[in-house]
Amino acid sequence: MQKDLSNYRKSYEKSELTEDSIKENPLEQFQKWFYEVEASDGVDEANAMTVSTIGLDGFPKSRVVLMKKYTHEGFIFYTNYNSEKGRAIAKNPSVCLSFFWPNMERQVIIKGTAEKVAENLSDGYFESRPVGSQLGAIVSDQSEVVASREVLEKALKDLEKAYEGKEVERPSHWGGYLVRPISMEFWQGRPNRLHDRIRYTLQEDYDWKIERLAP
């Protein structure tokens, strides 16, 4: 089985990224781009990002999750701490995040260190979730082998009965991670594959070094 994709080509011509137009701080540049992607109304989930970790088996693994907040400190997402990604982060907190917004011909690649957020932040976000999502976080032993879909659905129904009329508390194995960036690269598609790539690298004095990379 094979399929030749060599003729898949596209000319990127929607925008540009120049040194005189960017912010001095990459998190401010990210905010600018994120607002523009949201305003474009061309992406269903602008906060969808790929999280890459180094697994316990030594292999890198990437999966798409939803960013739930970004601040001057970094990027926050929530997950099961006992999941495959959670165990990987516990052993090696060095991670990579990436955003791809094809309608704007843009991507952002972020290298950073992940750490658990404060428990009160995890509590607050958990309380804001729909009850079904709260119960799903409890009933699912994320990344573990499950016998069938029916097993999961029955466990959820049993849990719905058990919690009927009751407040659902956040399980201790579920919560947020903050990824503090040490490097952020902004990629803007350009014609003739001469794409714009601007990289910010955190320095020892907590200032950011800005460099242009060859495409």
Structural features, described:
It is a single chain. By secondary structure, the chain is of the alpha+beta class. It contains five helices and nine strands. Strands 1, 2, 3, 4, 5, 6, 7, 8 and 9 form a nine-stranded antiparallel sheet that branches. The longest helix has 15 residues, at 26-40. It is globular. The mean pLDDT is 95.
How are the SSEs ordered, and which strands pair?
Elements: H1 26-40, E1 48-54, E2 60-66, E3 69-70, E4 75-80, H2 84-91, E5 94-101, E6 106-116, H3 119-128, H4 131-139, H5 149-162, E7 174-188, E8 196-202, E9 208-212
Antiparallel strand pairs: 1-2, 1-5, 3-4, 4-7, 5-6, 6-7, 7-8, 8-9
Helix pairs in contact: 4-5
Summarize the structure.
The chain is of the alpha+beta class and 215 residues long. The chain has helices spanning 26-40, 84-91, 119-128, 131-139, 149-162; strands spanning 48-54, 60-66, 69-70, 75-80, 94-101, 106-116, 174-188, 196-202, 208-212.
Number of strands: 9
Q: How large is the count of helical segments?
A: 5
Largest sheet: 9 strands, antiparallel
Relative strand content: 25-35%
What is the succession of H and E elements?
Answer: HEEEEHEEHHHEEE
Structural class: alpha+beta
- Termini distance? 32 Å
Which stretches are low in confidence, meaning pLDDT under 50 for 5 or more residues running?
none
The dominant shape is globular
Arithmetic mean pLDDT: 95
Which percent bin holds the helix content? 25-40%
What is the C-alpha radius of gyration, as a whole number of Å? 20 Å
